[in-house]
Amino acid sequence: MSGRAVAAAAVPLADVVRGDLVESVHLGHVVVLAPDGAVRLALGDPEVVVWPRSSLKPVQAVAMLRAGLDVDGEELALACASHSGEPGHLDVVRRVLAGAGLGEGDLQNTPDWPLSADAAWQRRTDGYAPAPLTQNCSGKHAAMLATCRAAGWDVAGYRDPAHPLQRAVVATTAELTGAPVDHVTVDGCGAPLLSTTLVGLARAFGAIASEGDPASPLARVARAMTSHPWHVGGTGRDVTDVMRAVPGLVAKDGADGVYAAGLPDGGAVALKVLDGSARPRAAVLAAALAVAGVDPGLVAPVGATPVLGHGQPVGEVRATFGGAA
After folding, report:
1. How far apart are CA 273 and CA 146, in angstroms?
2. Which residues are registered as beta bridge partners of 17?
3. Are 26 and 14 in contact (CB under 8 A)?
4. Of the CATH numbers 1.25.10, 3.40.50, 1.10.4160, 3.40.710, which one belongs to the domain with range 3-67+160-319?
5. Backbone CA torsion sign across 250, 259, 175, 147
6. Which of 87, 188, 76 is nearest to 128 (CA)?
7. Nearest to 252 by CA among 14, 55, 104
């Protein structure tokens, strides 16, 4: 679908209310799936083809486990993370690398400061420069390197789309989403980025969250994320807060206005904010989860997004639909 077609199909998802006026409106697409996979709610086009960005990380982690990656708990949660770069995150990344006989110098993700303002300030104060270790995708890249070591694959070329690791990720993505991977580009971190449909992304999260075999890669990913939500995001991050609030919820934020979540009963949601803004994502996610059957009271605090005037709330970002609107 062309960019113009994607825009034409988008609908209002959230109003930005300041005082007694709607100041801005965010358009986009949302899909909510019932436990049996039926579409419970579709706003915009559920079949829209998107770049899922970091929301795809749990799917990539499933592919890595299938290929021989031998981590669980905090280490597997970091493989699924867009972490804030706090010291506890960096310690786990180093541990994954050391377990594979590798070091920070083997990471090929883009150097960057931590997402956490406090962590970034401390790194600057301590005299550090932007580094692959502190970039939010370093957990995924460390896991990719560890997977290559476990499978006996070339380590240096792990980002190449033709590498066996990346071919395995493509196959797993197509399988779990039920949608062909028709487009491939480079994500912000330097790893291959795969396209999928919005409903396919929701379908994958529903499958991961509801997998019944505790030894399966899907269940291991779900268990790691739900047991270690701080490692998936960080202090003050809505992805961490929403997984803490809703038992068994597997959720992952992505750049440019993407979010996906799966429930233990197989229900799922996925959304794409058309303008790429992160501002309405939490409010829209909370509303979509309420449609999926989650108690609105559990997600309302996570979705609350105040609009400030002189540092004080004077309005809110308000979803245009659902029980949390």
Report:
1. 34
2. 22, 316
3. yes
4. 3.40.710
5. negative
6. 87
7. 55
Task: Round to the nearest angstrom and report the end-to-end CA distance of the chain.
Answer: 30
Average pLDDT over residues 210-227: 98
Which H or E run includes 285? helix 281-291
Average pLDDT across the chain, whole number: 96
For the chain, helix (H) and strand (E) counts, in that order, are 13, 12
Name the pTM for this structure: 0.97
How buried is residue 72: exposed, middle or buried, by Cβ count under 10 Å (0-12/13-18/19+)? Answer: middle
Residues 6+ apart with CB under 8 A from 236: none
| Nearest CA among 55, 36, 66, 33 for reference residue 172 | 66
pLDDT (0 to 100) of residue 324 = 40
Using CA atoms, how far residue 123 sits from 8, 78, 85, 114, in Å, is 44, 20, 10, 8
Q: How far is Cα 56 from Cα 202, in angstroms, rounded to an integer?
A: 10
pLDDT, one tens digit per residue, over 145-185 is 999 999 999 999 999 999 999 999 999 999 999 999 999 99
278's enclosing H/E stretch is none
Please check the confidence at residue 75 and state whether its pLDDT lies above 70.
yes
For residues 5-23, average pLDDT:
91
